[in-house]
Amino acid sequence: MKKRKSSQSRRLFVLDTNVLMHDPAAIFRFEEHDIYLPMVVLEELDANKKGLSESSRNVRQVSRFLDELMQSASKEEIDRGLPLPTHAAGKRAKATTPGRLFFQTRQLSSALPDHLPGHGNDNAILAQTLALQALHHDAQVVLVSKDINLRIKAAIVGVHAEDYYSDRSIEDADVLYSGQAALAADFWEKHGRDMRSWREGSRTWYELSGPAVKDWQVNQFVYEQREDGIEAIVRRVEDTTATLELLRDFRSERNGVWGIRARNREQNFALNLLTDPEIDFVSVLGPAGTGKTLLTLAAGLMQTLEGNHFAEIIMTRVTIPLGEDIGFLPGTEEEKMEPWMGALMDNLEVLTQSSEGGSWGRQATNDLLRNRIKIRSLNFMRGRTFLNRFVILDEAQNLTPKQMKALVTRAGPGTKLVCLGNIAQIDTPYLTETTSGLTYVVNRFRGWPHAGHITLVRGERSRLADYASETL
Question: 277 with 309: CB under 8 angstroms?
Fold first, then answer.
């Protein structure tokens, strides 16, 4: 690779294999900066190209991108660096001078410290990065890797290393949209002067203006913090004017959903979203025991069996074990998925425990419900279209943004999709709270008139579970 004239502001990024396996479009996301691919990275990509996993598909996509860039390029052009496109993913890049993609075309001499053990691929990448630092004194050489241990080793030998940040939906999980906002104590003094209200059937509406409106989103919940304060959902926002609709109170017995009542404010918000026919996509976040699955299943049963709004309920989840993998599971698709659906069974017991007719009556009710609830695997979702279905995606935090998009786009006319999860419990390698597919859809669907989100915070499982969550 020939040395280029560059200022210290121009950087050279050395990409680790896991970055490309995680995001195949990573080579287009470094704007005006240059990218360097060591030969060992290409070898690792080649070793991982076979298979049906998400990472294997990403590797094949990377190979296609590189092949397109190298179409009819000569050896001299490759040595000078291939110019990268000035736009990526439909967004115009900020840089006017495109960066270049360099491959390792010759062995660069660099002696790793004697105290660094091993001769693996990570050491080869570190050696190439050290050699580039010695060759390019006027540019900052940065190793980009999602492998924490490699970044630690890089820091030890004096290589500047960073995580891959371009796949983040948000900067910090603490600023993730919660779906609700508390009204200030002086809210009505500032917003109630020109307010008008009216009733449509059993629903009450308010139209008001004021400074707080500019921060609201469509289908966001607003509430007063006092005990008898109002709870409403924002239906429209135009400049500084908003239209609010008072919520149905699912904490009262007359508004129970399949025998289930909301036990706190956030659960009431969730049931309002889950039973709203105008909302097609609902995301519910919260730690274990907050009632995500129970509320969703109750709302689905009510709308499927009582209201006939949906033909059936489809429930699925990512199959990642908590401990050691139990191995091969025999049977049909539904039988293979049943061991992963303990949450469904547990919640069905709660929903049918009050059935009349003793054990026979409960068994008959369970059989009826199971006939309308189908368990499906995510592995067979590609190419399908769900019509008039109530789809529940449990443990959605373990999906990548690409997998989430593939699933959400399966929804056909009349289908409602509900994503449940806890971003504090992610089991997928290289996936974090800020890069999870669940975080991605919460951020991207924010403000869409047919989507809603709520974060549950209070555990309602038992006093033992609540105490364990707080102290363990």
Answer: yes
